[in-house]
Write a structure and sequence with these properties.
Elements lengths: L8 E9 L7 E5 L4 E5 L11 H15 L7 E6 L1 H5 L10 E7 L4 E3 L10 H13 L5 E5 L5 E4 L12 H9 L12 H5 L3 H9 L10 H20 L2
Parallel strand pairs: 1-4
Antiparallel strand pairs: 1-2, 2-3, 3-5, 4-5, 6-7, 7-8
C-alpha cells in the first residue's frame, strides 16, 4: 500500500488520460474534487520531479499574483488505483502534482488586444518572473475566460544545477512596458509567500541534491522579484 502522508487529496477513481507528452490523467479524489495529475513514471521520462516541482510552485505563485491558474495540490496515488487502468500503468504510486480540473478548457487563439487585460498582464509578468520557457493559455467555454497552465519548464529548467539556477537569478532582468501595470501585484507577494510556495513541494521532487536545488530556486525567485520591482 502506498502511503498518502503529505497528500492534500487521495485519488479514488480514474476518469481519463490525456494525450500529451507528460501523460497526465484525471482522477476523482477524496476531497470531492477532480485533479489533472502528473506523476513520476516508471519509463524514466525526464519531465518528472523537477517539472512537477516547477508547476506546483508556479501554481502557488500564480494564485498569489491573482492570475487565473488552476488550484494546485499534492495528490496521493494509491497503487491499486493506478494498476486498475492500462493508461496509468507507468505512473508511479506515491505523491504527485495535481491541478484542480477546470471544465471546458479548449485550445484557441488569444488575440493581442486581449493580452493587455489585467488578468493576462499578470500572467505575462508571472511567466517572466519564473523564467517560463513555455506555457499554455486555454479558453474556458462557455464564457470565454482564459486560464494559464503547464509551467513545467520554469525555474531554470528540469536539469539545471543549483549553481546555474542561482546564476540565472542574478542576471539582469528588466520589466517590459507590458509588465508595469502588473508590478503592484508582484510587490504584494511577500517573501514569506514565496518561501511557502517553494516549501509546499515534496522534497523528493527536486531530484538530485534536493535541499541545494530548493534553496537555489528560492534565491532565484527572490532575486528576480527584486530586479523586476526595481525596474
Amino acid at each position: 500500500m502506498t502511503s498518502a502522508a503529505g497528500a492534500q487529496a487521495v485519488a479514488r477513481r480514474f476518469v481519463r488520460a490525456f494525450a500529451s507528452a507528460t501523460r497526465p490523467a484525471l482522477f476523482e479524489c477524496d476531497d470531492g474534487c477532480s485533479y489533472v495529475v502528473k506523476a513520476p513514471r516508471s519509463d524514466g521520462h525526464k519531465w518528472v520531479g523537477r517539472g512537477m516541482a516547477a508547476e506546483h510552485v508556479v501554481g502557488e505563485l500564480g494564485a498569489s499574483l491573482r492570475c487565473r491558474v488552476p488550484v494546485v495540490g499534492v495528490v496521493g496515488l494509491p497503487e491499486h488505483v493506478l494498476r486498475a487502468q492500462p493508461e496509468t500503468a507507468t505512473m508511479a504510486p506515491g505523491l504527485a502534482h495535481g491541478s484542480r480540473f477546470v471544465p471546458g478548457l479548449v485550445v484557441g487563439q488569444v488575440p493581442p488586444a486581449e493580452r493587455t487585460t489585467p488578468d493576462l498582464l499578470r500572467v505575462g509578468l508571472l511567466a517572466r518572473w519564473v523564467g517560463a520557457v513555455d506555457y499554455e493559455l486555454l479558453r474556458q467555454e462557455p464564457g470565454g475566460a482564459v486560464w494559464a497552465l503547464d509551467f513545467g519548464e520554469s525555474l531554470g529548467g528540469p536539469e539545471a544545477s543549483p549553481e546555474a539556477i542561482r546564476d540565472a537569478g542574478r542576471k539582469a532582468l528588466v520589466a517590459s512596458p507590458e509588465d508595469l501595470p502588473a508590478l503592484p501585484a508582484l510587490a504584494a507577494v511577500s517573501q514569506s509567500a514565496i518561501t511557502a510556495a517553494v516549501l509546499s513541494v515534496p522534497l523528493a521532487w527536486w531530484g538530485f541534491s534536493p535541499d541545494a536545488v530548493r534553496s537555489a530556486v528560492l534565491a532565484y525567485l527572490v532575486d528576480r522579484r527584486t530586479r523586476l520591482l526595481a525596474s
